[in-house]
């Protein structure tokens, strides 16, 4: 944990990229403008040719960093989850009360995102919109099992494991901490999507946030399990 908190370079599995985009000005511009372009036109319409035109560089220069736009999306999603993990560890590491720590962890993974000035080439607010709208495209593929074996999703799985352990510390009798943890993280994305696009089928909105919903849900689930075990 100390290493995580002291290292502000967000680590992404190196198999995802050909050349680390954090190692050069061009690489950082590729990341910065790919986020803005995907947010503007959507991942399906996004191409390296369009990105190259945006950054005033050849399409081939983008291929020196990523072999495909799918790998670029994997990079962006991995970076995002590593950043969320950093935020969660930083926010919870000095909280001794297990229930309070869980509530803070849920807040971090479900709240509306604010821009982090630590990373000037990445707009986390815009990246969050991409995660909400496009994240499932990074793993709903025929190659998901082989990519999982290659470690492409290790950061996301590590985040879920951390949250699962915090849940377990609140109620060790609860049988489904990993399922609950993944439901909170994935469900938060879905509720933010519904809040933006299908308001009639969610209670989340201006007066009720996804954070409040998932804290309420988790508290009641763990409380019920505790009462049943007595």
Summarize it:
With 230 residues, this protein is an all-alpha fold. The protein has eleven helices and no strands.
Structure characterization notes:
This protein is 64% helix and 0% strand. The chain has a single domain, classed as Tetracycline Repressor, domain 2 (Orthogonal Bundle), CATH 1.10.357.10. It is globular and about 60 Å long. Residues 1-7 have low confidence and may be disordered. It contains 11 helices and no strands. With 230 residues, the chain is mainly α.
Task: Spell out the key features of this protein.
mainly alpha; disordered N terminus; Tetracycline Repressor, domain 2
Q: What distance lies between the first and last C-alpha atoms, to the nearest angstrom?
A: 34 Å
Query: What is the succession of H and E elements?
Result: HHHHHHHHHHH
Shape: globular
Total DSSP helices: 11
Identify the quaternary structure here. Answer: single chain
Main sheet overview: none
CATH architecture: Orthogonal Bundle
Q: Total number of β-strand segments?
A: 0
Named CATH topology: Tetracycline Repressor, domain 2
Q: Helix share of residues?
A: 55-70%
Protein topology:
Blueprint: H1 2-6, H2 25-41, H3 48-55, H4 59-63, H5 69-92, H6 98-110, H7 124-134, H8 144-149, H9 154-170, H10 177-197, H11 210-229
Helix pairs in contact: 2-3, 2-7, 5-6, 5-9, 6-9, 6-11, 9-10, 10-11
